[in-house]
Amino acid sequence: MMAWATLVQSWRLARRELRGGLHGFGVFLGCLFLGVFAISAIGSFTAAAQKGLLADAGALLGGDLEVRMTHRPLSPEQEAFLRQRGDVSAVLELRSMVRSLADDQRALVELKAVDGSYPLYGQILSNPAQPMTQALESRDGHFGALAEAALLQRLQLQVGDNIQLGEVTFTLRGVLAREPDRNVSAFSLGPRLLVSQAGLEASGLLQPGSLVSYAYRIRLPDRESTEALRQQLQTQFPDAGWRLRSWREAAPRVRYFLDRMNLNLTLVGLCALLVGGLGVAGAVRGYLAGKVLHIATLKCLGAPAAVIFLAYLLQVLLLGALGSGLGLAGGAALPWLLVWLFGDQLPVPLAPGLFPEVLLSAALFGLLTALVFSLKPLGSARRVSPAVLFRGYTLNASEYPGRWVQLAIALSALLLATLAVTTASDQRLALWFIAGVLVCFGLFQLLAKVVIRVAARLPRPSRPALRLGLGNIHRRGAPAASAIFSLGLGLTALVVITQVQSNLRALVDDTLPRQAPAYFILDLQPDQVAAFDALAKTLPEVERSERYPTLRGRITAIAGVPVEQAQIAPEVQWAVRGDRYLSYASELPNGSSLSAGAWWPADYQGPALVSLTADLAKGFGVDIGDQISVNVLGREVTARIAALREVDWSTLELNFALLFAPGLLESAPQTHLAAVHVPPEGETAVFRAVTQAFPNVSVIGTREVLTNVTLTLERIGAAFTAMATLVLISGLLVLAGAVSADQHRRIHDAVIFKVCGATRRDILAAFAAEFLLLGLCAGLLAALVGSLAAWGVLEGLMDSDFTLAPMALLGTLAAGLAATLLLGLLGTWKALGQKPAALLRED
Fold it and tell me: Which one of 59, 301, 766, 798 counts the least CB within 10 Å of its CB?
């Protein structure tokens, strides 16, 4: 009964307090809104994308079950087995060159050949709108084709123009606007060209060993029987060597990318929320400082400390719910807004909706942050005696809040960390983030104290403005500590991201083009090899060329353990996700060095041997003498590991993760892959000569690929930069709150300065010097810590060289310094216009 009475009494006091408005809680609400909005918006977008992928899974996959083969189609028996169980559509995919008959320009395309049953789900959209079979049929002696707008722009074509593909002329019958089963990828090597299977067969591009992917999609009468059919296929054809995917596994890489992006951006959003927590603490402390007389009066009238504590805690929780609620509403609305603005232009299908788990976790993040940062000033106010309050007491941030309050703070912080870990898709990364946050918080608190102590011990400058600005940093109650802390963290996040982006962009733009081949040439047939080698020798622009036979194979067992059961490190999971390029060689490739084992003789003819890259062997947990099994064109081969190689993949030299010894793969259907090194001025001539001599090959320009990589890095980096900007905005809000809480003292100082003869310009210069010094200290600390963190990310996580990018660093710090100065002066503008008479009469 006593507890209930205390709660009722506290609620009455809290309700009466809130009737006075929300003055002093603007920063509190803004910080919570930004953090909760960031977390809920990221989570809602990811959930909507995953729901859209699942809802449209049949269309994304092209069927209920997909059977994918490389190099070869299904056997008649296998295809008949599928057709007996549902509707089947066959799709062939490969890369090839097309030529404009108008001006002989050439371009690489992602070629897709479909049958009359395609698509089993969804529909093809083209401009002008027309049935797909009509667009692709043979008419007036020419097959039809649909092409993406990018191909028409690149070759300066229009609908109705003719292009040559292989040995056949095709007519462009429309612009391809949408494929329901188009895989979402960061970038592609060329625009899409859609043709019929009859047209592809007539083109002569289907040669033994050509890199063609055959996908058979089946639509079942009952979608839920997909797994049963998968088991039947594996039982009936155990050695088929195909890859099976159900509609539930559509676009797995997109989901993986979304999960990682969601995790990383959520952690950055949580960082913004934690930085904003300083604003929460400052706002609560400032609000309670304005209620000193009220608290003293309540205590003198006999109000228990518990009633006062609960009354103000209820206010904090209600206002925290308001700020978090606004953030949740904004975050939940983001998917609907994106669909309304961009619609079908989005890279993934969105299914907007309310996602309770996402909103609940974001709300808990906001609630726990509010508790962690507000309990200490609430506890401090509860313990102050009425006598001290009536003597003009102001809340001291270092006041001991009490054992139970400290326990509540620790419990709230523990729950916040637990929530971050349990809601993360990668608990290990979340734990590292928490450790990093603790280190950064401790480091910046220490550095802020050091700056204040150093400012107190520096000799006084001769210029009055500098002397006053320096004194304001270390005076009692100055906002310097919170400003340096919050701005430092926000600027550090920006420095890390801009430095990492600059280094990755430099790696692509500067290092790689000087070392990489100009072109990679795919699908050279065995009977074209001699002619290609001769052509490469006669072209004066070619500095050197390399060529390897290539096949596609899938790793099936590691050291005798099936890949499904093997323990494989996350960083090399890519090697077992699908088919990989394989080759064989008698000599060690350029750009490789032996790290273990011995290379086989050039005329080796013994048992099957293979060489792995050292990173792959480490991730697989294998060493010299262990065995690797690979399925090549339906036949499983097992080879002993004879050598491990160190390979610098960043040079783009022609190399392979798995390289076999001669004597095993020569008789298998294969094509050749070549790399041609050409200076920039000779690239056009070599490109034209190769494509004219071998119209069936695919020529991939390295510079174009690197341009796509750069664009991809910029798009991904833009998302992280936006989130880091949120962190900085939270820091600026904290600064605004600190300046606002300190406004009464600044008005008093400005009046005294005016009475002593100072002009408005003198006062403005003193305040500007203070904020410049604060911004400069925060910026220098952020430059140091952020650069060290970027070095750790690049050298440790990405295994890449780090080079300081001074212009990016200076630009980031200048922006932060300008924002600090502007916000600080805006917050003190009222002090500049204050009339001395009114304040002097009060004193």
Answer: 301
Nearest 10 degrees: Cα torsion 187, 188, 189, 192 = -150
Instruction: Tell me the mean pLDDT in the region 450-455.
Output: 82
In the numeric block, the tokens 């296929």 are attached to 233
pLDDT in tens, 595-606: 889 999 888 888
528 and 643 inside one domain: yes
Q: Tell me: do 77 and 2 sit in the same domain.
A: no
Residue 581 has pLDDT above 60, yes or no: yes
- As a whole number, mean pLDDT of residues 302-306 equals 73
Let me know: does 197 contact 90? Beta carbons within 8 Å.
yes
Question: Which range, 244-248, 350-354, 376-380, 638-642, is most confident?
Answer: 638-642
Residue 329 backbone phi and psi in degrees, to 5: -65, -45
Q: Distance (Å, rounded) from C-alpha 798 to C-alpha 164? A: 43
User: Of the candidates 373, 404, 425, which is a domain's last residue?
Assistant: 425
- In a domain, residue 652? The reply is yes
Q: Is residue 230 part of a domain?
A: no
User: Taking the CB of residue 326, how many other CB atoms lie within 10 A of it?
Assistant: 16
Domain boundary among the residues 425, 451, 485 is at: 425
Joined together, the tokens standing for residue 842 give 């009060």
Q: pTM, whole model, 2 decimals?
A: 0.65
pLDDT of residue 470: 77
Q: Half-sphere exposure (CA, 13 Å, Cβ side) for 285?
A: 27
**DSSP H or E run through 408:** helix 403-422
- Whether 693 and 780 map to the same domain: the answer is no
**What is the extent of the structural domain holding 588?**
516-708
Q: What are the residues facing 701 on neighbouring strands?
A: 519
Give just the sign of the alpha carbon dihedral 757, 761, 767, 772: negative
21 burial (CB, 10 Å; 0-12 / 13-18 / 19+) is exposed
- Counts of helices then strands in the chain (DSSP H, E): 27, 22
Asked if residue 119 has a cis previous peptide bond (ω within 30° of 0), the answer is yes
Distance (Å, whole) CA 502 – CA 807: 10
Q: Are strands 213-219 and 87-100 parallel, antiparallel or unpaired?
A: antiparallel
Structure confidence by residue, pLDDT tens digits, 196-227: 999 999 988 887 767 788 999 998 888 788 88
Phi and psi (nearest 5°) for 578? Answer: -175, -160
- Name the most confidently modeled range: 96-100, 236-240, 385-389: 96-100
C-alpha closest to that of 25 among 326, 307, 297, 261: 326
Same domain, 405 and 270: yes
540 and 684 share one domain:
yes
Alpha carbon of 595 to those of 591, 648, 654, 683: distances in Å? 13, 13, 19, 35
Q: What does the pLDDT read at residue 57? A: 56
The whole-number pLDDT of residue 198 equals 92
Does residue 521 sit in the same domain as residue 658?
yes
What total number of domains does the chain contain?
4
Amino acid 742: pLDDT: 59
Q: What angle do CA 150, 154, 159 make, to 5 degrees?
A: 70
Cis peptide before 128 (omega within 30 of 0): yes
CA distance 616 to 571: 9
- The answer on 733 and 807 residing in a single domain is yes
Q: 21 versus 628: which is more confidently predicted?
A: 628
Pairing of strands 142-147, 168-178: parallel
Question: 384: burial class by Cβ within 10 Å (0-12, 13-18, 19+)?
Answer: buried
Short-list 241, 221, 232, CA closest to 75: 241
245 in a structural domain: no
458 within a domain of the structure (yes/no):
no
Of 180-184, 353-357, 807-811, highest mean pLDDT: 353-357
| Residues 168 and 111 occupy one common structural domain | yes
Calpha distance 827→834 (Å, rounded): 13
Compute the distance between CA of residue 259 and CA of residue 256 in angstroms, rounded to an integer.
5
315's CB contacts (< 8 A; 6+ apart) are: 14, 17, 18
